[in-house]
Amino acid sequence: MVLRSRRVLLDGVLRPAAVLVDGQRIVDVLPHSAQVAAQEVALADDVVLLPGLVDTHGHVNEPGRTEWVGFASATRAAAAGGVTTIVDMPLNSLPPTVSVPYLETKRAAADGQCVVDVAFWGGAVPGNTSDLRPLHDAGVVGFKAFLVDSGVPEFPPLPDPRPALRELAGFDGLLIAHAEDGTLITQATGRRYADFVASRPRASETSAIASLLTAARETGARVHVVHLSSADALPLLAAARADGVRVTVETCPHYLALTAEEVPDGDTRFKCCPPVREAGNRDALWQGLVDGTIDMVVSDHSPCTPDLKRLDSGDFGDAWGGIASLQIGLPVVWTEARDRGIDLADVVTWMSRRPANLVGLTHKGRIEPGADADLTIFAPDATVDVGPLHHRNPITPYAGRTLHGAVRATWLRGNVITDGDAPRGRLLSREDARV
Q: What is d(CA 383, CA 186) in angstroms, rounded to the nearest whole number?
């Protein structure tokens, strides 16, 4: 089969090409006019051929809290959004993925349900340092730690990550960290969004990130800062990287598209931790992406049941923090990027190749010979109104917004994903990084 398009994302550039697929892999990328004895798929001029997106930050919550979200609904939403690989966080499932038996429980729950490919993070919590190497050997792609209360008691914070980092340094494992300093956070109450933002100040991120970088420098381990919301930490991160600290950074669609000024008091759909901040901070995060200080954009998809969002009371202190965006992340980010004159090629690189590289899945997130034939057909000039979503609980601050860009089709390993198909997603392990 050959997919022929006037615009294909190849090595960070959109250009004409013919992509030859044999079975589940891309076997060649040819000039657009190349004649090939294969089934022809000619794409319309208004669409671009992109690699399937890779989302390394999703909370699927199954087993245990499957009423919030589960593998069937999460992966269906991912496919509808052009995401062909997700990496599931070790919390908020019951049990959390902090040991090999618990990883096997998670994999058993996911087996046979996944529409896209799924890999897994392990967890680093107090008392499980001896579990880290076995989890690594069992296939997790790295380890998540909270430097502050996680919100669920079964996944306690790791205020001093150095013991875990020393263990991970022994096998070049990766620690990804929710970096906020709990000593600088106060308990928010009430409906005023400004009060909630003030309760989790930018200084809490800067302080925690500084401590994480010091620990990474001492141990030589790799670290990754998840869901950066405060641009104040960018100079610190850039300086550490220049000094040889092995640190990468992600941010999320909500920090790039939403602003504190637009959040109505009592609208807890906008609550996440750390919070959406002011417009000037959002602009600085975009600059961090453009200059390379921030490496990637992932969803931090973290929905819950409607009652936990406290939509009735509008109490930001009491509501669950998490924004659902797995299905609409690409148009959300592209809409904002387009207005800023940023190329679609850059957006997709931040959302495909870079996350894939973070977790070692270098046969994902790219269109090149040898890569999985995970592909997204995207119409960048189309407009879509955010309406019905595949999310089990489709509560989102984007509801009713008009966005630029529409996913027309998603291919997983050479096959178009359509509603009603039997799930073909694979459960990936670290071994797949070597494929």
A: 41
